[in-house]
Amino acid sequence: MSQSLDRALTLVNQLATGPKTLDELSGVIGVHKSTTLRLLRTLESHRFVQRDGVHHYRLGTALFDLANLALEERDVRRASEAALRDLNSRLGHTVHLASYEDGEVIYIDKYESRHQMRMYSRIGRRAPLHCTAVAKILLADLPAAALQKVLAGMEFPRLTANTIIGPTAYLAELERVRANGYAVDNSEHEDFIHCIAAPIRGARGEVLAAVSMSVPKVLLDFDGLLAHLPDLLATAEAASAECGFVSR
Q: Taking every annotated instance into account, which residue ranges of this chain make up the domain HTH iclR-type (predicted)?
């Protein structure tokens, strides 16, 4: 571990016990105050540290954000595992679990297809926002202001003949997702694969993650895939119940 990183992590650990002065923190890591100040300013720029008045420092909001994201991701993966594994076992198709994190949709779990044709997706990979069913589920649940912020930075490259192009068409698609309670990727990301996705909700009704089932078109046409929508929705409902959601 580099010396600077070691010192910065030591500062964060010290601030976990309460606000500290520059003198106190310099004493802990055994360096001049100017060196400590440079480290603190770097940590402050990333919101890991914030100044508390003139002379004190305390932990910043980034640590709490990261902790909440880590706990949510770990909990939804664990709580959803049985339902997603059962869906994969019964139907044999690829099942994904994805979550939304600061403007990105990330695959956080995957159950491989039992058929010969497999997808190249992997845990930790980002899902394109404009053309994947999981992203549509997750973005459809965002507050209007947050959604507009994401849209402002989105690009809409045409990946297939069915790819949605432009924010107007995409917003209309999200309205359909909200109305239907599920999303589709009708060969919008890859022209030989299509996908359906549904939300997994938490105790407050918020969307914690999206579960999807992806199938090569040579195995099932789009109508055949939609015939499995009740299975997917039942899986999402079972996973949501394990996450504390009570349907009304």
A: 2-61
Residue 6, SS3? helix
Q: Is 197 helix (H, G, I), strand (E, B) or coil?
A: strand
Among the residues of 16-60, which ranges form H helices?
22-29, 33-45
In the prediction, which pLDDT does 62 show?
84
* Per-residue DSSP letter, 161: T
User: How do residues 138-177 score in pLDDT, each as one tens digit?
Assistant: 999 999 999 999 999 999 999 999 999 999 999 999 999 9
For 167, counting Cβ atoms within 10 Å of its Cβ (0-12 exposed, 13-18 middle, 19+ buried), the class is middle
Q: Whats the size of the chain, residue-wise?
A: 248
- The residue assigned the tokens 């580099």 is 2
DSSP string spanning 219-232? Answer: T--HHHHHTTHHHH
Does residue 12 have a pLDDT over 80?
yes
pLDDT, tens only, 83-106: 999 999 999 999 999 999 888 899
Q: Cα separation of 89 and 104, whole Å?
A: 29
Rounded Cα distance between 24 and 27, Å, is 5
Q: What is the H or E stretch that residue 134 is in?
A: helix 133-140
Residue 123: pLDDT over 90: no
Query: Would you tell me how many other CB atoms lie within 10 Å of the CB of residue 12?
Result: 16
Rounded Cα–Cα distance for residues 143 and 151 (Å): 12
End-to-end CA gap in the chain: 52
